Automatic annotation (TrEMBL):
It comes from Paracoccus marinaquae. It catalyses: 2-phosphoglycolate + H2O = glycolate + phosphate. This is Phosphoglycolate phosphatase. Its cofactor is Mg(2+). Specifically catalyzes the dephosphorylation of 2-phosphoglycolate. Is involved in the dissimilation of the intracellular 2-phosphoglycolate formed during the DNA repair of 3'-phosphoglycolate ends, a major class of DNA lesions induced by oxidative stress. The active site is at D13 (nucleophile). One of its GO terms (molecular function) is phosphoglycolate phosphatase activity.
């Protein structure tokens, strides 16, 4: 069965897929915890909380630290004041920039669908000089719904010209949120195996997995010809 005819739209998750942003999230979280006289959390712990958006992040932090839940709204506000333009510790995953360039050069419409808020999303895309590659950006506060609800991914795909009922497109991500979202649309899911997922790969529905961005363009073309 044909999945899509090249050049088909390709939508990417951001945190844990194109960028390793956990160090900046970790630093911003611990700065807020310090203000509350709460012991800092490790980078690995914070990384395990990333993917569901800022509210999910802080719900998990509050549960892990025993902070009064009624303070969560103020903690999020303090976090966002630091996080909205936090890029100093964030890195593109190796080969991601080059793979995006290849796909764009081949004519694939590219988009972003992330649970990260729009402000930090735009800031980090600008920081790495890749914002212009993406025809649409759907962030965690662009719609009432967040991944794994399919609405954000559907909006991104439609913004790139995909058929809203039977989108011939691909989604590239790294986590449980992304896998469930792609399955709900549905579109084929390519998973970056060095991201922030918590479950083993075999427990997540996906068409193909990759740990090296240099092979992503080939995987995309394989799907286009399937």
């Amino acid at each position: 069965m044909t999945v899509c005819m090249a050049p088909c739209p390709i939508v990417f998750d951001l945190d844990g897929t194109l960028i390793d942003s956990a160090p900046d999230i970790h630093a911003s979280v611990n700065a807020v915890l310090l203000q509350q006289d709460v012991a800092p959390l490790s980078l690995d712990r914070i990384r395990s909380f990333v993917g569901g958006g800022v509210e999910v992040l802080w719900t998990k932090i509050v549960a892990a630290t025993g902070i009064e839940p009624g303070l969560q709204r103020d903690l999020i506000a303090a976090f966002m004041a630091r996080y909205h333009d936090a890029t100093r510790l964030t890195r593109l995953f190796p080969g991601a920039f080059e793979a995006l360039g290849v796909l764009a050069d081949r004519g694939h419409p590219l988009g972003i669908c992330t649970n990260k808020p729009l402000g930090p999303t735009v800031a980090v895309l600008d920081h790495f000089g890749i914002r212009q590659l993406f025809g649409i950006v759907i962030a965690g506060d662009s719609l009432p719904q967040k991944k794994p609800d399919p609405a954000p991914l559907r909006a991104a795909l439609q913004g790139l010209g995909a058929d809203p009922d039977t989108p011939k497109a691909l989604y590239v991500g790294d986590s449980e949120f992304d896998a469930a979202c792609a399955a709900a649309v549905p579109v084929p899911f390519l998973i970056y195996s060095r991201g922030y997922r918590l479950k083993p790969l075999e427990q997540l529905p996906h068409r193909a997995a990759f740990d090296d961005f240099s092979i992503l363009p080939r995987l995309v073309e394989d799907e286009a010809m399937a």
